[in-house]
Amino acid sequence: MEILAYGVQADEKPLLEAAFAGRHEVRCLEVFLDSDTAPLAAAYPVISTSVNAQLDAATLRALAKGETRMIAQRSTGFNNIDLEVAAELGLTVARVSYYSPYAVAEFAWALALAVNRKITRAFNRTREFDFRLDGLMGRDIHGMTVGVVGTGKIGEAFARIAHGFGTELLGWDIAENPVCRDELGMRYTSVEELLSRSDLISLHVPLVPDTHHLIDDTALRRMKPDAILVNSSRGGLIDTQALVEALRRGGLGGVGLDVYEEETGLFFFDKSLEGIADDTLARLMSFPRVLVTSHQAYFTSTAVGQIIDATVRNVEDYLAGRTSENTLIPR
Question: Is 263 a catalytic residue?
Fold first, then answer.
């Protein structure tokens, strides 16, 4: 059987082809799945999609019309999939419920450290042989109060690194993680106290209706004026317009973002020649204390390999009539 894979990155393609070798043929496309590209999947019973696929009702109906029966998404998040419509159409949907939490946690710390120590600004200066230290002063992470919003596998990995730096840990989640609490000394508290007391705040919760714009104008006004905010989870956790306004009035000491709520159609594309029409993102990136990367926190050979291996298993489970913890809608 031949499988159609959408949104395959250049570094990902050989790993994906090697994983399916000896089992199935895989046709890799760079384009992302949406209602316009869905017809390309005609006659492919199984497709694989990336995190930025737009699996709304129109796309799902186009896939079903083309005789697609199974969607294997290569990501943990699935807020981009209309599961109700997929179920109505009889589509099987699976995701990757687990991959290396260290990839994302380490990258979140890379963002935090780069923002705190003005690494990007320093790099740009020294490239022009400007070796002054003006405006490059940061703060010790040691002794900071670090707030971890969401203490699942990734949040726990982030907290372990924070513990190694010698920080005071505050946590917020719907359920306490005993490892964070008992081994790392994290104190669970309300999200309001976490935001107001933390010197550094990192977001590690999924995007669901209750967490949409969790960081809004009210939340931003609770934060310390020199707090560092990091988001490597989902863009919709932050009200970007409110964030821009907070930065404009001098709030926050730094922001590191690997995700953006309107990233679809922007991230993973080369916009260097045409520029972008998104005024909010352009304004956000104009602040020197903001660092934006393009949803790459997961992008290590370890994590991508685990994602691909899980995707192969999901396809094999579907063909064998099995379900697993990755199955969102069974056959």
Answer: yes
Same domain, 184 and 122: yes
Q: Is the pLDDT of residue 255 over 90?
A: yes
CB 267 within 8 A of CB 297: no
Specify the pLDDT at position 18.
Answer: 95
My answer on whether 323 and 243 are in the same domain is: no
Of 234, 245, 325, 331, the active-site residue reads 234
Residues 269, 140, single domain; the answer is yes
Known catalytic residue at 295? yes
The pLDDT tens digits for 197-215 are 999 999 999 999 999 999 9
This model's pTM is above 0.85: yes
| Domain range enclosing 319 | 2-99+300-329
Catalytic site includes residue 168? no
The one catalytic residue among 222, 263, 283, 289: 263
Exposure pattern of 97-133 as b/e (b: 16+ CB <10 Å)?
Answer: eebbbbbbbbbbbbbbbbbbbbbebbeebeeeeeeee
Total domains, the chain = 2
Among candidate residues 204, 295, 322, 331, the one labeled active-site is 295
